[in-house]
Amino acid sequence: MSETPFDLALIGIGIGNPDHLTFEGAAAMRNADLIIIPRKGEDKADLADLRREICARVLDGAGTQIAEFDLPTRDADGDYLSGVSDWHDAIAAVWTETIASAAPRPKKVALLIWGDPSLYDSSLRIAARLDPQPSIRVIPGITALQALCAAHRIPFNDVGAPVLVTTGRRLRERGWPADADTVAVMLDGACAFQSLDPGGLTIWWGAYLGMDGEMLFSGPLSEVGPDIVATRAEAREERGWIMDIYLIRKLARAG
């Protein structure tokens, strides 16, 4: 059996506000020998800058090394799942190279995860591809769903009702899920709600949650949907990237 090469902490850091980092996450950062930070290109420099800001606030002379790496891009052509699998292999290889290049050799490595490592994030799947396998620790963070509901001051679910969490791709391809009163949609780059019959649906949408320039829209889908589409396109053009999420609910029952 191969010796465990290092301990790997996947630390959820929330969705843009450094104050969202938990005390547990901060302690894990200070305890790490190395923190690795992905760079996603000049048009998404804000994301790396926020991670740098969190490190500057938390480490405060702790002596932790910081190493940055360029995140490989996913091939959008061909089969989606095969493309994602190849992309994860490429990221795992870059993680391995970045960690191996650190001197002295780190025993405790941390990766700062946007949002929470458990919710529509691939870090755990990528970490599972490392060979030999590190000892993995997951530290939960504030999710985009929590931040969205807090920003709009709404509960996640209707009274006694379930919520289905899905992606823009599935919503667009399969329509409104059967037996769902509330649908939370993530990873939607094309405003898939446009494919729905808006009658009787209310939407709560948010972008750049917890960050400077936070954007919020809510109301009947038929009324605010076009405004969201236009605003999203303008914001993405201006900043080069956008992170957004939304909740759609059928007309609430009484009670």
TrEMBL record:
GO molecular function, one term: precorrin-6A synthase (deacetylating) activity
Entry superkingdom: Bacteria
Pathway info: Cofactor biosynthesis; adenosylcobalamin biosynthesis
InterPro entries: 4pyrrol_Mease, 4pyrrol_Methylase_sf, 4pyrrole_Mease_sub1, 4pyrrole_Mease_sub2, CobF
Catalysed reactions, semicolon-separated: precorrin-5 + S-adenosyl-L-methionine + H2O = precorrin-6A + acetate + S-adenosyl-L-homocysteine + 2 H(+)
Record domain Tetrapyrrole methylase: where: 8-224
Enzyme class (EC, first level): transferase
GO-annotated biological processes: cobalamin biosynthetic process; methylation
EC number: 2.1.1.152
Gene3D superfamilies: Cobalt-precorrin-4 Transmethylase, Domain 1, Methyltransferase, Cobalt-precorrin-4 Transmethylase, Domain 2
Sorted UniProt keywords: Cobalamin biosynthesis, Methyltransferase, S-adenosyl-L-methionine, Transferase
Protein name: Precorrin-6A synthase [deacetylating]
Originating organism: Rhodobium orientis
High-level lineage: Bacteria, Pseudomonadati, Pseudomonadota, Alphaproteobacteria, Hyphomicrobiales
